[in-house]
Amino acid sequence: MEIFKIILLVLLVVCAISVSFSKNLLNSILIYMSYSLIMSMIWILLESPDLAVTEAAVGAGVTSVLFFVTLKKIHGLAHNPEEESSDESN
Amino acid sequence: MSRIRKQSEYEKTFAFRFFRWLGGEKDAFVGNMEMQPQKEYVEEEATIEERMKDRKQVIAEAYDDSHNMELRFFNVLYKIFSIVFCVALVFVLILTVSHLPAVGDPDRPTSNIVSETYITDGLKDTGAVNIVTGMILSYRAFDTFGETNVLFIATCCVMILLMIDEDEIKKNKESNDRGFEPKNDVILQVVARFLVPVIFLFGIYIILNGHISPGGGFSGGAMIGAGLILYVAAFGFEKTEKFFNEHVYKVVKVTALLCYGCIVTYYFLTGANGLECLIPLGEAGKILSGGITLPINIFVGSEVACTMYAFYALFRRGGL
């Protein structure tokens, strides 16, 4: 169990650092999502399942979805040049 | 309209102007203030070119560290100092954490009479087996009421910023709602059909058992909100509007907040004046127990669920 805890904590630090070093915004959000999931597992290990449920629902679910919607609004999700050019013509 | 005074006399009074303003019949600024439609900002090509030239020149002069020794020295110094500052900050924070008293230490300053009272008298006073929920929702109910108000105000602010008119939503429905993603994604719909009921049930279970098992209004409400978002993402706003539209949202949200305020006010008034509270504590461990904890859990849960869904809907298409 101790090893599992240490692995989780190391993964948490790795996720936190790689969010800020990732160039692609979409990747950043996905890593942030995994950060929240790891955090919710740590909450369970710390014997607070209520916080774990909240973290999984709010951190990994709602916040990331809001980030995705915002990215779509500012056209940060469009990859192929066809869609970008059609956006500019509108 | 006044029955005592004449119409012409009544129009001069303050009450007439106030009720006219309240009813929105007359805009106070029309006629008293000069109004012009906003001009579209058009930049000429020459000014754009000049601006680009200026910018390039500034960049070339300010960041030319191959000729400017002073600048190069400053850049190196800046990097060194930023690294030193970060390391020092981390060092200080870790030092502080290492000097904190250990978790569960009986001599730590936080284990005083307050937490002791909560632990020993919590079940007797609140009737909630889960001490955390009992503490948050009865000893500190006023605090939680403030937090629920924060959620309400946050949605109001997002509405002010992102709400669009009804007609605009109808006009831009397709482009706003489903910009790039494939319409009626089958995988998402099948998964949502199985998952959404389970998520709703689990959320309701957490809310209703908030005073018995870990959880409570906020966790359960967040789960129900997430389930609603999944449903909307899979089936679109048209199907969701059949059971959760702006009217339902307004009614649920305001009713929850009002009922919460009334219950807490009643509970505190009776408690402070030594009167008998009419809300029974019930038998510990049963669903219908916990005094005010259970109804407040339900109200907080519906408030949070509404907030989560409203955030998503407002971000997605600018309306509920």
Oligomeric state of the chains? Answer: heterodimer
Shape of chain B: extended
| Overall SS class of chain A | mainly alpha
Number of helices, counting only DSSP H or I runs of 4 residues or more of chain B: 13
Structural account:
The complex is a heterodimer of chains A (90) and B (320). Chain A is mostly helical and 90 residues long. Chain A has one domain. Chain A is built from four helices and no strands. Chain A is flat, with a radius of gyration of 17 Å. In chain A, 19% of the residues are buried. Chain B has two domains: 52 residues, no CATH class; 193 residues, no CATH class. In chain B, 68% of the residues lie in helices and 0% in strands. Chain B has 13 helices and no strands. Classes of the chains: A mainly alpha (90), B mainly alpha (320). At the A-B interface, helix 3 of A face helix 11 and helix 13 of B.
Protein traits:
heterodimer, A: 90 residues, 4 helices, B: 320 residues, mainly alpha, 2 domains, 13 helices, extended
